[in-house]
Structure formats: C-alpha cells, structure tokens
Amino acid sequence: MLSELVCFEPTCRARFPIDEVIYNCPKCGALLEVELTGQLPADVKSLWRQRRTCNTPIDQSGVWRYRELLPFGGAENAVTLREGDTPLLDAPRAASYAGLDRIAFKHQGYNPTGSFKDNGMTCGATQAVRLGMRRVACVSTGNTSASMAAYAAAAGLEAIVLIPHGNISYGKLAQALEYGARTLQVEGANFDEILALVRLLAEKLGIYLLNSINPFRIEGQKTIVFEMLDQRDWNPPDWIVLPGGNLGNTSAFGKALRELLAHGLIPRLPRLAVIQAEGAAPFYEYSRGGPFRKVEHPETLATAIKIGDPVSYPKALSEIEATRGVVEKVSEREIADAKAIIGRAGIGCEPASAATLAGIKKLVASGAIRQDADMVAVLTGHVLKDPDYIYHYHTGQLTGPGNAKISAGFQNQPIVVPNDAEAIEKILGS
Ligand code: F0G
After folding, report:
1. Structural domain boundaries enclosing 383
2. How far is ligand 1, taken at its centre, from the CA of residue 63, in Å?
3. Cβ distance 207 to 160 under 8 Å?
4. 409 occurs within a structural domain
5. What is the pTM of this model?
C-alpha cells in the first residue's frame, strides 16, 4: 500500500514522505503516524492463512505475513527472526481467579527475544536498513533494548542501548550484552529522563532512534492484533487487555483495530483496557480528565512499565476513546499475586504482563467487565525475564517501593532437605 507519515495532531495533519528520518512533526512537534492508502487484495484473509504453511522466512513471520497492512510495499530487506506466531492460550484457573467464565492469553513472551517488542523491532530495524542508517539506539526498561540488540545484530547494524543503571532486570540486561549492543547504564536517571537524552544524541550523531516514538515500531506491533484476530477466525473479543507503560502498544493496538474495521475485516471494535501499576500511573489519572501530569518519580517492581512520562499518551487516549475503552491501575500485591496465578496455569509471564489479570479482576469486581465477557489479555514478556522477582516472591522476600513488604498470596517456598531418602520420604508422605 502507499504510505506517508502524517502528523497525529488533528489541527495540523501535516504529511511527510515515508523515508524522512523524523519522529515528531517538524511543523508542530506532535507525534507522527503512518497512513496507508489503497485497497487490499480480494480475499486477503485466505492469502494470510495460506502463508502460514509456507516455508519462506517472511511468510513464517507472524509480522511480515500481514505485509499488505504494513508500510513497506512488500517485504524486501525484511530483517526477520521469525517473530510473532505467538499462541492464544486458554487459562480456566486464571479466569476463575478474576471472576470470569473464561480468558485467553495472547503470549508475546514466545517471541525470539521473549517480548512483544520483537513485533515492532522487525519493522523498525527494516526501516533503518532501508534508510541506510548504520547505528540504532534506544532507551529501555529492558525489553526494547534486548529486542533492538538482537535485530540490529541480525541486520549488521551497530546497537547503542541506554538503560537506567540498576533499574532493569538482569535477564534483559544480559540479552543486550549477549547480542553485542554497546550498553550504557546511565546513573541517577529514570527512563523518561534518558529518553530526552537519547533523542538529543540521536539527532546530533545521526543515529536512528528505535523507541516506540518511531512510527515503524508501531506498525509492526499492529500485527499482534492482526494475528490474534486471524487466530480467532476474525471474531473480535469483547475486550483486549494490555499493560501500559510508554503506551506505544496501546497506540498500535488501537490503530490495528481501526484499520481492520475500515477494511471490513472485522465487524466491530473490541474495547481496549489498559492497566498501569499504581506507582507509575499517569495515564490512569489522565484518562479521568484534566491535563496530563507526569509522575516525577515512578515506582513499581514491574520495572518494564516504570514510566512516569509516556510519550504516546495522546495517541493512546484517542484509541481508548475510539474503542470505548478503560484504564485501570493495580497495586504491587495485586500484580504479584496475579503473576503467580498465571504461573500456576503453566503459562507464566513477567511482572508487567501480570498487571493485565490483576486489572481484569478489579474491573470485574467493579462491574465494568461482565463475568461472561469474551476476553483476551496480552502477556507482553516471558516468565524468565525477571527470575529475581519470582524467587523473592516465593521465598517471602519481595519488597516494593519504599521497602514495603509484599506478602505473597500464593507462595511456593523451596524446601532445603538433607541427602537422605527417609527424611525426604517423611516430607513427601505428609
Ligand atoms: N510489558 C512489557 C513486558 C514491557 O517491556 C513494556 C514496555 C510494556 C509492557 C509497556 O508497553 O510501553 O508500549 O506501553 N517496555 C519498554 C521497554 C518501555 O523499554 O522495554 P508500552
């Protein structure tokens, strides 16, 4: 399809060629989005379905399979690691924990680097190659950096990662190192402050920025919704629930749904529910009216969503309104227990992802979501992304912001035993 970059601000709507290296509107400074124009091929749903059985890397990719709704006019130069293709998993026990009849998790942790960022990064890295960029950079709470490092390595680009020192999980930091990124741990600064820094450096040094402010990342993340609907034979659920941090994913999901509806591929829009952690919930407050106020010192153990000044909030609010969505916030304890429940379903996820189930439980209890609703919650990251959190939870050592102890509702303490069959028999026999 033909594509252009368009200013997201309704009073501006300035248009720019797709190959300009810009992230904000040069006229008014607002966010940019890709606009696609043109017709889809007849019976595109069958085409997409057929591609699942093809062995070419671009058809195997759960992102590039949907290339008719991506801004590249094809899949030439696609930098792919076979991202997407993530399952929808039914979880009856998690459903009853939340007070629902049923729930399915779309688990983005099954991606090559273990998070939904890969859906976006395959497109971001491809655009970097198309533009002839040599270096790419991002600030990250961990997953973006892991993903960017991998895709940059696959594309032969140099990756520069900036992270808040001491504030991302080792699993994620380890990935950036292993994939060969130059990793700068910035002292005494949070995600929001480092984003300002990396934007300045990218501009000065001509480095391509791969945070979700980059509209090509958003385009790739749309395919999470395309694939989810394809897996459901294009029957929209009542609700799609996701955690909110910098709000790129919320923007991507809303855009995906609007495009599917506009092309007649779905009969109606599901509602979006975005869940934030209590200590980092500026979007929750904003969604209740009034001006946007950033949280100066965001705090949560779900470090992936420890963000106080999310860049994509204007887009995200517009998508919440378009889908008659809701925004909820949840406590550290609620996240921790929901995470353990997702684990006991044999599924598992990282803390930020579990905010979904915690939020759903709250929304069902308040009557905002019906018990018989058709629900899909998106688990954004793999259980092994943050093993320290898990160990601390199950051994009763989890402490939240301000050193507050978080008591675990579903603790599973490991037991130290002597190397002695009789002693072990006694424990297991009881
Ligand atoms: N879940 C996980 C596991 C994440 O890593 C992130 C964001 C989110 C949810 C929130 O998504 O920002 O689109 O609202 N992580 C970013 C990072 C910020 O740097 O990895 P969002």
Report:
1. 88-112+216-390
2. 18
3. yes
4. no
5. 0.98
